[in-house]
Structures are given as C-alpha cells and as structure tokens.
C-alpha cells in the first residue's frame, strides 16, 4: 500500500488535491482496483491463492497460453528487444514477415505493425486528418479513437451509435477538405457490429476515409477469422483496417492494413509508429504462429458461437438483460454502478470473475457485467456462470420481498 499524503505527513497541495479527487472516485463508486494474477490455467486464474473462473479476458480464441506460440517466440528469439525504432534499426525480419502475413491474412496490399491498438489509433487518425479537417466518430467508439480524434486537431463530430443516416447527413453538411469516419468494428462494451457495408458505401460516395478498429472482430469474425471486412465480404481503398493482436491473437500489438500508398504514408507520418521502439521481434514470431492457428482452427469460432447460445438460453426469462450480441462479448446491463459492483462481488464470492464496467467506459446508468467468452471455456464453465447468476437472482428477489412493507 502506498501512503497517502496525510499519512506521510506531507502538506503538499498538489498531492492533497489528488487525494481529494481519489476520495470523490470512492464516493461515486468509480475507484478501480487491480487484482494480481499469480498463475493461469486456461480460463482459471489464481488470485490471492484462490482459483477463479474468468470471464474477463479478450483472449477469445484461448491462444494466449498456447504452447505453440511460446515455442515460436523462444525458437527464434535472438534478442529480447528490437533495440531501436523501426525507422532507425528496429525493424527486424520477424516484423517484416509478420507484416507480409498480416496483409495476406486480411486481404490488403500492405500492413504496418504498431506496438498496441491504442498507439495504432493514435497514430493513424492524426496522420490522415488534421487541423481544418473533420473526423466523424461513432458515439460508442473506444477511448483510443476518441483520443485519436482529439489529438488530430480536426473538428470532431460524434454520430449516434451505428446511425448511418445521421452520419450521412453530417458528412453531406461538412465542407472539410479531408473527412474521416472512425468506427469500432465490434463495439467493445456492447458486442454490436458496425454496419460496415453501409459505412463503406457512404465513405466512398463522400470521398471519406474509413478507419475501422477491428480489435474485437479479428480472429472471431469472417471466414477463418479474417476479420469484420471479410465477414461482410467488403473491400475499399478508402478503408484503413486496424486490428489488434493482444486479444484473439493472444499476444500484443496491432496493425494497420490497407492500400500500399496509405500504409507508406502511415509509415512516414504516424507518430506512434515513428517515435517509439519497435516491439520485441519474438512477439512477431509468436504472432505469425497465432495467425496460422487462427486460420486453421475453425473449431474455436464454432465453440464461441455455441457458448454464446448456451449463455443466452440459460439466462432467458431471468432478470438479467443480455445485450443482443453475436460476438464473444456478452454484456449484462445492470444499471447503477453500485448494482454492477455488488453483482460482480457476489460472483467473485462464488469463484467467478466477471468485470463490472462503469462510466466513463460506458454511458452513465448502463453499468454492466461484461461477460467475455473464450474458446478455452467449455459448456460446464458457462453453466457455472448461469447457475450462479440464477442463484443470485433468487437471493435478490427473496431479500427484496422480505424488506417490502406488508
Ligand atoms: C476497440 C478497441 N480498440 C483499441 C483497443 C486498444 O488495443 P490495445 O489493448 O492493443 O492497446 C481496445 C482495447 O481495449 C479496444 O477495445
């Protein structure tokens, strides 16, 4: 535990102000804490010596602990770090091979590797749009797109979630020289899928860029997990397809894929690519193996679909409102922060770990449990979750009827 300024006996106004604001987070039920993972066995994580069944991870295909990825990384490892940024001397043959494979995997001319998805968005959007330009962003986009749009210094227009008509009106009214639409492909806290066919048609008609963040679609959607554009069977030269490699791909990193000219521009101008140390080459070797497995092992996606159906059927008719989602993300909207935190704590007491997601990650009043499924779960795991939620439902109902006035 770190000492608070008061405990440390300091009278530092900067620290006092932070301590006051931390207290405010506590009072609003918004203070977040970490749990330290001591060990993992598939979807079971050991926390404080106790094994919990986890529905927290974005490791949708269950690849992060796959020994084949670890072997691929260690077989080739000549160095722990890349040693420099890519444009100096940090671009290794492992990176080059992975970029070639990523482009092939998603059906693009070329791809460029970033160290994280957050950095990819922060690099891509400001490289394509700047002061005087216009960025159009879905209301439920991930924080990294929100930040990227702000960083670009373009005028930012937020359109209602998945509302292509509203977006079309905004694009038509805009006189900006460069227009850029940015959207999550699969929305991270809802599991909804962007109307990609319509977005592409609109962006082509309006000569706008479309930056598609496929963090939660890559590996999960499309034939052989090739991502959301493959799921819809669409291509466009206006499209910059961003995918992350720390979720279904099980490792870390991200990429932008698209037309060769677009990617060359990003290589020149995306500041989060240019001004940072390239990722460790052995991660690229692990990812190369991961892409092979993603394409080869369709059973992982089939299992995800089966588990989602099982969860939906198991909670049908209960008090729990599962958002309609065909993806691995199956959120249960609870409402208040307190209710979400209480439910998550009750599940933890039963050995099940599901994260409570609160504002600012989701809109106020829509705090939720974000259940994420993985191909590493089996039907028994999902049944455990359903049984625990059903038991809690009965307990809450009987507590409420006991406290009701006669
Ligand atoms: C939609 C979306 N984009 C980008 C990111 C950031 O990716 P990374 O974790 O690789 O930084 C996330 C991660 O949570 C995400 O959900």
Supply database-style keywords.
406 residues, Aspartate Aminotransferase, domain 1, Aspartate Aminotransferase, domain 2, 2 domains, seven-stranded mixed sheet, four-stranded mixed sheet, binds pyridoxal-5'-phosphate
| Overall structural domain count | 2
pLDDT averaged residue by residue: 94
CATH level-two architecture of the largest domain: 3-Layer(aba) Sandwich
Helix share, percent: 40-55%
Number of strands: 15
Q: How much of the polypeptide forms β-strand, as a percent range?
A: 15-25%
Q: Which segments are poorly predicted (pLDDT under 50) over 5 or more consecutive residues?
A: none
Small molecules held by this entry = pyridoxal-5'-phosphate
Put simply, the count of helices is 15
Following the backbone from N to C, one meets helices and strands in this order, namely HEEEHHHEHEHEHEHEHEEHHHHEEHEEEH
CATH topology of the largest domain: Aspartate Aminotransferase, domain 2
What is the C-level CATH assignment of the largest domain? Alpha Beta
